[in-house]
Amino acid sequence: MKTTSSSIDIATIEEPLKPDKDGIFRGDNARKILRYLLEEIDYRDGYSSRYMIGAGCPEQNKYPDTKGYYKDISGVWVAFDNRGNECFVEEFKSEEIALSWINNEFDVV
Questions:
Q1: Other CB atoms within 10 Å distance of the CB of residue 52
Q2: How far apart are CA 100 and CA 49, in angstroms?
Q3: Alpha-carbon distance 67 to 33, whole Å?
Q4: Parallel, antiparallel or unpaired: strands 25-26 and 77-81
Q5: What would the pLDDT profile of 61-106 be if each residue is shown by its tens digit?
Q6: Phi, psi (deg, nearest 5) at residue 53
Q7: Do residues 88 and 95 lie in contact, with contact meaning Cβ atoms separated by under 8 Å?
Q8: What is the 3-state secondary structure (H, E, C) of 37-83?
């Protein structure tokens, strides 16, 4: 099992993490998935978005097409949408707004 400098275990574990019944990761599982997506995936070199996985690399991602949210220690809700293997991350003031964004009820501009 890998750990980061903040000693939070990331999602490179023997048993894959499972989303809730609605397909959304929440809480600590969401935090682990997002850390995995941002720190462990080999992203395309020289691409404008560091979150886009390189062509031919989707098999590297153990959690493709995922979405989730969690409350950060600062009190903000961090939500991510990795559908399509482009990991978009936003912060929100409430859980309801974070969930609405994940469910495509509005776009952040």
A1: 16
A2: 24
A3: 9
A4: unpaired
A5: 778 889 999 999 999 999 999 887 778 999 999 999 999 999 999 8
A6: -75, 140
A7: no
A8: HHHCCCECCCCCCCCEECCCCHHHCCCCCCEEEEECCCCCEEEEECH
Q: For residues 3 and 91, what is the distance between their CA atoms, to the nearest angstrom?
A: 24
> Which residues have a Cβ under 8 Å from the Cβ of 56 and sit 6 or more positions away?
none
pTM for the full model? 0.73
> pLDDT of 15-65, one tens digit each?
689 999 999 999 999 999 999 888 776 555 544 444 455 554 545 677 888
Element (H, E) at 91: strand 88-92
Contact between 65 and 85 (Cβ < 8 Å): yes
End-to-end CA distance of the chain: 37
Residue 10 near residue 32 (C-beta atoms within 8 A): yes
